[in-house]
Design goal:
- The protein is of the alpha/beta class and about 325 residues long.
- The chain has a domain of about 180 residues: Rossmann fold (3-Layer(aba) Sandwich), CATH 3.40.50.150.
- About 40% of the residues lie in helices and about 25% in strands.
- It contains ten helices and 14 strands.
- Strand 10 and strand 11 form a beta hairpin.
- The chain starts with 7 loop residues before the first strand and ends with a strand.
- Bound molecules: S-adenosylmethionine (SAM).
- Keywords: Methyltransferase, Transferase.
Length: about 325
């Protein structure tokens, strides 16, 4: 691997975006796949979300990475062998950069393989990370988690350390998270590691505020997916006819966001006409919150052994290290 900027892109991204969008909007109830939030505008709005006062998740995980990267890097490198550090849904890597720095400071032999469905994210990381960390060996992969993970695991026969942070696992239902972790385990080898972030159950008002901010940034983030469909899939959504709604259920730990149709309307996507009744909802995204016991259960059910946990000072968030059992 080298530091040259080669982006691997799946050719059928747009066809898949169209098919999955139509499937979701022709279903009852309607839904969208949250992975499509992240075009260049979505990436930018997500950065604004991360800076919001109400969005405690970023500060909490940032605190873990900023102050405990030395311990994290010690745990990853305990056996002293070279490895590939594969980050799923890397985003702008503002948190993982602390771990990368710590590994480089300790002269560890590793390659960094960020995977992200946003092409903009990968080109940005490949261009900018080497400026901040000149010794970093980086190869970005643009595409869906598992398509790219299969490629990533074939890049070398070194052991793998997979990073899955930012509560990305929370964007799955618990059942989907189990399938995801089981599939991930199938692609890894005994003793490979997973560092995985979970947002913990806490005061329901605090959670709801993070997904229903006063400034309306989360609202814009959700509406931007309709705008993206207009631009890329020849849609004609009128954004003023949809309203953002968020809910949190403290019993299940599921925080959900929806777009509500404000009137009876027809929206065209290419040649397909989609009917929305007044007050009909589109389910946009889940952000699942976990108790610590749920996390250990998830590890055990899916073939991982929990090794260590790293918390922020308020215990809002945890980054757990699991080993393939
Ligand atoms: C919530 S952001 C978190 C970014 C980063 N991990 C952090 O902690 O700040 C989610 C990132 O995952 C990417 N992503 C979402 N679904 C994906 C998928 N199915 N395959 C690959 N990347 C995905 C998005 O493009 C986005 O950059």
């Amino acid at each position: 691997m080298s530091t040259t900027t080669t982006i691997e892109t799946t050719t059928d991204n747009k066809t898949q975006f169209l098919q999955e969008t139509l499937t979701g909007l022709q279903s009852e109830p309607k839904f969208m796949r949250s992975k499509y939030f992240y075009d260049a505008t979505g990436d930018r709005i997500f950065q604004q979300i991360m800076e919001m006062e109400e969005y405690y998740l970023t500060n909490a995980e940032m605190e873990i990475l900023r102050y405990q990267s030395a311990q994290l890097s010690q745990a990853i490198t305990a056996d002293g062998t070279a490895f590939d550090l594969i980050e799923l849904g890397a985003g702008d890597a503002t948190k993982s950069i602390h771990l990368l720095k710590s590994l480089l400071d300790n002269k560890m032999e590793f390659s960094y393989v960020p995977i992200d469905i946003s092409e903009h994210v990968i080109s940005d990381l490949e261009e900018n990370l080497p400026k901040k960390l000149p010794e970093l060996d980086i190869k970005g992969l643009n595409g869906d988690y598992f398509d790219m993970l299969k490629k990533a695991t074939q890049l070398s026969d070194r052991r793998k350390v997979v990073l899955f942070m930012g509560a990305n696992i929370g964007n799955m239902t618990i059942a989907d998270a189990e399938d995801f972790c089981s599939s991930l385990k199938q692609l890894l080898s005994p003793n490979d590691l997973l560092i995985i972030g979970f947002d913990l159950k806490k005061n329901p008002q605090q959670i709801l505020a993070a997904y229903n901010d006063k400034g309306g940034i989360t609202r814009s983030f959700n509406l931007n997916l309709l705008q993206r469909i207009n631009k890329e899939l020849d849609g004609n959504f009128n954004l003023e006819n949809f309203e953002h709604y968020a809910s949190y259920d403290p019993a299940s730990g599921a925080c959900k966001s929806y777009l509500i149709s404000l009137k009876n309307q027809i929206v065209n996507i290419g040649r397909q006409a989609i009917h929305f009744a007044e007050n009909e909802y589109i389910f946009m995204e889940i952000s699942q919150k976990y108790a610590l016991s749920d996390i250990d259960q998830l590890a055990e059910k899916t073939g991982f052994k929990p090794l260590q946990r790293f918390f922020d000072q308020h215990q809002y968030f945890v980054d757990a290290i699991w080993k393939v059992d």
